[in-house]
Amino acid sequence: MPLIALTGGIASGKSTIARRLAEHGAVIVDADQVVRDVQQPGSPVLRAIADAFGDGMLREDGALDRAALAARVFGDPEAVGRLNAIVHPAVRVESQRQFDEAFGSDPDAVVVYDVPLLAEARLADPWDLIVVAHAPAEVRAHRLVELRGMTEQEAAARISSQVSDQERLSIADVVIETDGPLERTLAQADDLWSRLGELVGARRGLRR
């Protein structure tokens, strides 16, 4: 019943790897979706966000205005810290509930937590394996401009707001290079799946 953390910087191809592992039978828990789940209208998290940053963070229908919140906290470390203090504990509880549910349904399940902010928020959790999707910052910036319509300045700001590539790579048990053709990325994900027992066993052995 391995619990695997899959992380990577913005536009690193992490979701492509997650989809491939799901095709092999992994249960994917998506941290971004968990965040959306805990911020549903009427939730304690959403109320706390409005209390901390103002009702302007809410749309007329009571849902979170994600663009307004991003504009409010981006580039302001103190505001980001306040937001994280509200959101991260709820995400931790809900993600753990989903892990437990998956293993309760199938004790032999392979659960993959697709999590952008592993190095920032969840590194100390008891992962059986940490997989990092990696592409150089300039490649990811190009993807943000070409595929997501950001300006070069916006892309650079988003990348620089995350931990460095070096810091992310330093925590990896497995690195999947995603700067080449899609087929190469998928082949590496396939190889990871085929070697999962060996890799998890090696990491568990190091922790003893």
TrEMBL record:
Ranges that cross the membrane: none
InterPro entries assigned to the protein according to its UniProt record, in alphabetical order: Depp_CoAkinase, P-loop_NTPase
Catalysed reactions, semicolon-separated: 3'-dephospho-CoA + ATP = ADP + CoA + H(+)
Entry keyword annotation includes Cell division: no
Main location: cytoplasm
Annotated EC: 2.7.1.24
Leading EC class: transferase
Involved pathway(s): Cofactor biosynthesis; coenzyme A biosynthesis; CoA from (R)-pantothenate: step 5/5
Assigned keywords, A-Z: ATP-binding, Coenzyme A biosynthesis, Cytoplasm, Kinase, Nucleotide-binding, Transferase
Sites where the protein binds ATP: 11-16
SUPFAM superfamilies reported in the protein's UniProt record: P-loop containing nucleoside triphosphate hydrolases
Highest taxon above the source species: Bacteria
Keyword ATP-binding: yes
PROSITE patterns assigned: DPCK (PS51219)
GO MF entry, a single one: kinase activity
Signal peptide: none
Intracellular or extracellular location(s): Cytoplasm
NCBIfam families linked: dephospho-CoA kinase, PRK03333.1
Known function: Catalyzes the phosphorylation of the 3'-hydroxyl group of dephosphocoenzyme A to form coenzyme A.
Membership in a protein family: Belongs to the CoaE family.
Name of the featured protein: Dephospho-CoA kinase
